[in-house]
Amino acid sequence: MVRSAPDGALTDDERAVLPTLDERIRHDDGVWTDFLAQIAPSAPAGAMTLGGASATPDQTADLSLLPPRLLLFAGPNRPEIVTWTTADGLHVQARLRDDVPTGSRKTTGLYAVAADADTGALLAYAPMRVVEDRLEATLGVDGLDPARLRCGIVAREAVTEVRLDPIGVAATDVDRHCRYAWSEHRRAGALLASVGAATDESAITRVQAAADRARRTAERAARGAARKAAALVRGNRDDDSADVLREYRNAVDRFAARITAPPTVDGPAGPTLAELHSVGMR
Predict the structure, then answer these.
(1) 239: Cβ–Cβ under 8 A, 6 or more apart, which residues?
(2) Which pLDDT tens digit goes with each residue over 27-77?
(3) 3-state secondary structure string, the chain?
(4) Distances in Å between the alpha carbon of 69 and those of 183, 202, 252, 266?
(5) What is the pLDDT of residues 172-225, one digit of tens each?
(6) Domain-by-domain residue ranges, the chain?
(7) Which of 78, 93, 110, 240 falls between 20 and 30 A from 234, CA-CA?
């Protein structure tokens, strides 16, 4: 049974999306079910007792299920989602980016969800609220072991795409590394494009050094994505999902090869005005 926030706490729009969330628990996705059947589930770390609260491990978000540039994303291995339990339930919190305006539509229609870490079955959800610089929600988890839950944050329009089973979490990890690699690759290109605006040799040296660091960071992240995608294939080479996973790995390999090529610094594929602005080139 899926647990939700008290119905009286919801707006009409939020109440309207609940049937979709309820349906997600009954949704039969044959491909992903097959993936899950072929992968040995990994047990999540146990909760740590902190006085009257229990802190569960921080967790990374599936950014593909959220509006762009919503959460503070500091890197593929830096969790955005902080969780802890009290007598009131499971608390879920995530920091917003500094440039998300107060009252932004990006922050509406968002839900915190919790799923069984082994099967990915949704067990609880609640609408998120903005509190100062963060999103917060409290999920009812009576009778559930918080250490066996995997949490996520999802936009209303993406509720049917939530996958918190082990293979879904692994794919999210690959996606996060790809996103970080692309961001740093583009930043390197913007930095190189801005070299011409530098007024002295020391400034040029600093900008070029920053671009080199961004390129190396991008390449490391892309190689990490490729290694993780390859691990999915190795773990499933003898089952029906192997062909799909190999196609996925090949796509990630092609992406990684693109990231290792020099970044584009001009022309239609070059840095956008926003990217140039972000590295200080006005």
Answers:
(1) 34, 38
(2) 333 333 333 343 323 222 333 233 334 444 579 999 989 998 899 999 999
(3) CCECCCHHHCCHHHHHHHHHHHHHHHCCCHHHHHHHHCCCCCCCCCCEEECCEEEEEEECCCHHHCCCCCECCCCCCCCCEEEEEECCEEEEEEEECCCCCCCCHHHCCEEEEEEECCCCCEEEEEECEEECCEEEEEECCCCCCHHHEEEEEEEHHHHHHCCCCHHHHHHHHHHHHHHHHHHHHHHHHHHHHCHHHCCCHHHHHHHHHHHHHHHHHHHHHHHHHHHHHHHHHHCCCCCCCHHHHHHHHHHHHHHHHHHHCCCCCCCCCCCCHHHHHHCCCC
(4) 12, 33, 22, 24
(5) 999 999 999 999 999 999 998 887 666 678 888 888 999 999 999 999 999 999
(6) 7-32+41-162, 168-278
(7) 78
Contact yes or no for 54/48 (Cβ under 8 A): yes
Question: Measuring CA to CA, which residue among 264, 38, 19 is closest to residue 170?
Answer: 38
In a 13 Å sphere around the CA of 266, the CA atoms on its Cβ side amount to 4
The amino acid at residue 161 is: E
